[in-house]
Write a structure and sequence with these properties.
Chains: A alpha/beta (307), B alpha/beta (660), C alpha/beta (291), D alpha/beta (180)
Strand content of chain D: 15-25%
Radius of gyration of chain D: 20 Å
Number of helices of chain A: 10
CATH class of chain D: Alpha Beta
Protein name (chain D): Coenzyme F420-reducing hydrogenase delta subunit
Keywords (chain D): Iron, Iron-sulfur, Metal-binding, Oxidoreductase
Largest interface: A-D, 88 and 60 residues
Distance between the termini of chain D: 33 Å
CATH topology of chain D: Rossmann fold
Oligomer: heterotetramer
Shape of chain A: globular
GO molecular function (chain D): iron-sulfur cluster binding; metal ion binding; oxidoreductase activity
Strand order of the largest sheet of chain A: 2-1-3-4-5
Radius of gyration of chain A: 20 Å
CATH architecture of chain D: 3-Layer(aba) Sandwich
Pfam families (chain D): FlpD
InterPro entries (chain D): MvhD/FlpD
Strand content of chain A: 5-15%
Strand order of the largest sheet of chain D: 4-3-5-6
Largest sheet of chain D: 4 strands, parallel
Number of helices of chain D: 4
Chain lengths: 307, 660, 291, 180
Amino acid sequence: MKELHNVNVAMRTLARELLESGTVAGVYGWKKGSRPTLTSPLYIQDAAKADRLAYDQYAVSNLSALLLDHRNNDKKRAIFVKGCDSRGVVRLLQDQQITPEQVLVIGLPCPGMVDEAGSLLTKCAECRFPNPVMADQVLGGVEVSKQPSAPTGVTAEAARKVGVGSRAGERMAQVAQLEGKTAAEKEAYWAEQHDKCIRCYACRNVCPACNCRDCIFDTEKKGWVSKAATSSANAFFAITRAMHVAGRCVDCGECERVCPMDIPIMTVNRKLQQDIEALFGPYDAGVDETVVPPLGRYQTDDPEEFL
Amino acid sequence: MKRIGVFVCHCGSNIAHTVDCKQVADEAAAMPGVVHAQEYKYMCSEPGQVLIQEAVKEHNLDGYVVTACSPRMHETTFRKCAGRCGLNPYMVEQVNIREHCSWVHADKEAGTEKAIDLMRMGVAKVLKNEPLKAATIPMTKRALVIGAGIAGIQAALDIADNGFPVTLLDREHSIGGRMAQIDKTFPTLDCSACILTPKMVEVAQHPNVELMTYAEVESVGGFIGSFDVTIRKKARYVDTKRCTGCGACIQKCPSKVPSEFEMEMGPRKSIYVPFPQAVPNKPVIDAPHCRYLQTGKCGICKKICPTDAIRFDDQDEVVTERFGTIVVATGYQQFDISAYEEYGGGRIPDVITGMHLERLLNASGPTSGKIKRPSDGKEPKNIVFIKCVGSRDEAKNRPYCSKTCCMYVAKQATLLKEKLPASKSYIFYMDVRTGGKNYEEFYRRTQVDYDGHYIRGRVSKIFQVGDRLIVRGDDSLLGRPVEIEADLVVLAAGMDPQHDARELARTLGIAYDAHGWYTEAHPKLKPVETQTGGIFLAGACQGPKDIPDSVAQGSAAAVKASALLTKTELTGEPMIAQCNEAMCSGCGLCVTICPYKAITRQPKQERIHGKMRERMVSTINSGLCQGCGACTVACPSSAMNMGGFSDEQIMAEVDALCQR
Amino acid sequence: MRYGYYPGCSLTGTGIEYGLSADAVIRHLNMDMKEIRDWNCCGASSAHNHDPLLSIALPARNLALAEQQGFREVAVPCAACYQRIKAAEVAARDPLKRREMEEVIEEELSGAIVARSLLEIMVHDIDDSALAAQIRRPLQGLKVACYYGCLLVKPRAIAMDEAENPMTMDHLMERLGATPVEWGYKTECCGGSLTLTRPDTGVQMTAEVLKYAKLAGADCVVTPCPLCTSNLDMRQGTAEKKLGRSLGLPIYYFTELMGFAFGLPMKTLGLDRHFVEATGLLQSLPVPASG
Amino acid sequence: MSALSPKSGSPADCAVTEGHVGLPVLDPPPTAAPDTGKTKNGEWQPYIVGFACNWCTYAGADLAGLSRMQYPPNMRLVRVPCSGRVNPQFVLRAFQKGADAVLVAGCHPGDCHYGTGNYFTRRRFLLMQRLLTFMGVDPRRFQARWISGSEAPKFRDVVTELTEQVRPLGPNRLWREVEP
């Protein structure tokens, strides 16, 4: 992608400098994969490997959850972020899993991510935060913004053309469509979805909000749920996962992307987002780390339905 | 597997009438883990408890379930019973087959079935019970009383008389509070100073009391038993050890400032004591108004002082001291009448407040007790009182009654009539509320013997024409408008919380209501306690109060505080949160949700990948945790659990109920 | 700021001096104020006694027109018009009410447009130095009783100033060099709606206002309301009879005094159209040294 | 298809986070678990699990007993210190194990014995209720109520109503664990 040529050069230079100077102990970015349409995560600790870094419209992976590998480490790591990725970093900062001293956030302009066929990902069409919500440095002229905004930086024009954010108003369409169904239809729909789950936990592993040291689905001691992928246990897993990230999900869509069984996980997350906004007021998780997530606070005059 | 006993109580016929107790016991005996099941007429009786204790010994029980009445009734009984036979009291569960079963289901079959389910639930739970032990926390045998008005003075005296050291703190440089400003007290009309000053002297001279005036609380750390209180002692510019209180400096000081104590109706000096009977009776320098401190010129006080006590280089001093318990007695402030534009909003000089009139009535006040109105010093003839100014007024966000105004207005009208026999007082009221011993009688005397003219209705407007005040209102009993030409209008301004009450509450970690009054732990049964262990309330900081109520509360708070101080250590609640540090990721979700600030993130040293690393984990202060369990749900990884109501126990109960 | 100007009916009729002086002052200050095209009755004094929906729908149409014509604020000189239009603005903040209003007037309303009284615009939007620069004849020594009436300050939801002791006009008068007197009748009723139905009571109320202005030592009364002015000016003679004393208090619109201070001709401001002679008092003011 | 597809790359690119990609577990075809609710005179009875806070609702239920109020025997109460102690996972667990309906009950907001617990309860379960409805659970099967220590009649009415609301719905089989 020609707009990103200089950004790629700057990324490599910056990564090299940061590693050579010892400013950071490692850098998270992307590399070109085995196919032209694959740009996969890369972690380097050696300045010599900085040239492997690459960033283009296939660099869809959110790298923020990888920072958890170093959560008890004093050394600093640099991470390249798109708008959606940056909210994952804020998630980790707010959840106190990393400290600002441990991470150097480098914001990148996002051209809009596309699939193998070259069409814009739905999550990018629905994107409200195409610019980093926080960054220590930026490349490619991207502007940091804590407000929903239009794409900025060198790829702004390209992003606009492919329609980044053009369908932001329709984010809840899938939720609305399901809400319109009868209880029996919903039950059948979700039973089918839950039955597909193979409990690989890829959704959890990639999620920056799923940052527990020990996940309750890994600890057998308490016996919250059986390991077996039964319909019942899968539903328990799906709902519990959703409740645990309620008000904390940063809307990056990685859970759904990595799901090998195509379970519409984000529909559940979006449903919760929608209800939280309706019940407790507007809130975007992973934007402002000083605002406590909605389930960690209350208003005495919250909606009352339990009278 | 644990060896469990089940004891089925008949409660006379209360349970046995509609629950087949034998069947419950039989079903229990057949349950895995249950090694003994038994029925008895009254399990809570002495023989019943002996029966349990013998069974514990005979069958070597690890725990037992009593199916009986509500655990809210006898849980403590059956836990103590276990304690007496060497079993941990928390290895006992009581299930409720009386209130929740036999009394509410007449159908014996359905009742028995439910009782069996509940019994199974109890057994399933007790199988997961762990012995619990209450943590103990040390008690610092020293109390802090914040605020040295009459409530604080009383609290400090009572604590001191109980034999405990107490520090009495006030931000003003004399103790005494609002009561010192008041002229006479209702309903006895004894002079306020005459009954207050002996108490002030008594508390100052008490060997167990340390006075700390001109000082403010900056921060409070710690918890019940060991509060670490940081106090700022404001610079006085006078060495209190050297100063003899001779007053020569005050006399010679050339700079005059309106006196706060006199409601700015009279002057004071820049070096001053607020009022003649002040305790300690040693002046301070008001730095912003001191010529020397502002311009470097003057210094007369220093020159004249016979003991060389003036210290122009004095600095604020910040100290941190430890107290076991705190009594908050910070009082109130008078409502600011500027909110009432229709009454002149404080712009009309002869529209004054009740406290202004107290000072005008007082023989040591700015007019030496002569009633002179502020604008021109004339003696007023027609005096209008308006009650409920800043009370019972939703529009001013003061829906509450200030409780004292009805009586102080009656008192002031009486005193005015005594001082100015030719005067006439008109009193506009909404209701006259005189609940209190001899209060109603006093109010009647004001009306009958002292010519107080009570008019039921609100005043809509006061304005000035020439040197008269036109007071317009309505008489709602006669149903017609009234207009009075007055010489002086007294607004019976209500009580407001101190302007910084919320700030102090947050510092102390205590609750306050929508207006800023401090919230007691229970409106009826815990009137002087707060939700925060070890912190008590006295006086008007909790809500409008008159002097007798404030004194009573001061004594009550002192009893509560002393009860703590008699202990060398405190026993905490055994059923509290427990953090599994190995699982805890230190995210702090539990910290924000804890109502008692009992959880803090603390560093934990740990060997990770062969290196010593530090990571943050949640730590529970067993002295502060009250066992609500909110943290357990906030914690997504279930690292946070709770003794007595653990995840495992509750799940076992659910499973047992459902798997029938 | 561009304002849509809503003159209302009084400013060409009973309140002609207000209309003339407001026009002159607006023009003199070069303010970007254009009359709203095709405006209609604000509904004051009758609509809200008949039909609550009508009483907000009528003024709402004016707001809708102003929006369509690209205004974000509407400037309203007449106090009665202000109260109705402001009431419509407040009602339009409620989406349900707004939909109802839109249905009646068959126009769209954003709910974002703001109605403001000409008085507050003059005081808050024109800064001190700009105003001072215009003053040719400061109102030195003129003691004015600022009389606001009820419509600008009640009820609370629409009030442009404090209901008991408003100060907006007092500040304006001070800036023009006059001395506002402290008095208690700033917002007392002028008897407006009773003058036709219960003339005796109405005049009594008018007389009270004038009496207390006089007692406070005022030379004249200044108002922002055509209805109040009608009562205080036109009925001053009757009031004098009722009080049994002469008053001779000219009643000015604040815009007239602004215009006079700016040095505009009295005729342009309509100062010759008063019932109580109004030019003499102003002419008697000391003339500032030229320069 | 979901809202956020299509995917880029294969699921393997999540290997970087050491995801456990496994083969689907082959379940035996689900067989209906026996209904928890027993039949009485041939009529099916709903079985309801209630979580009650110790200070208000449990006390309210005690008072109902003291007042000898009569209500259907279909609910079993689990005592918890505070409604804020009720983990949504307990609710799911009850459905898994065969409850036909679940009630969470505590003090009225503002009256919490622990000050603030039930404010969090309210937020949490407002949300969970909507999520469960979204997933096809009949809202009558999961309810939350505020019942104070003095509201014995309310406790009786809530139990009665809940029982009667759930009766026409029949046994809940959604998420029910299959008997091994």
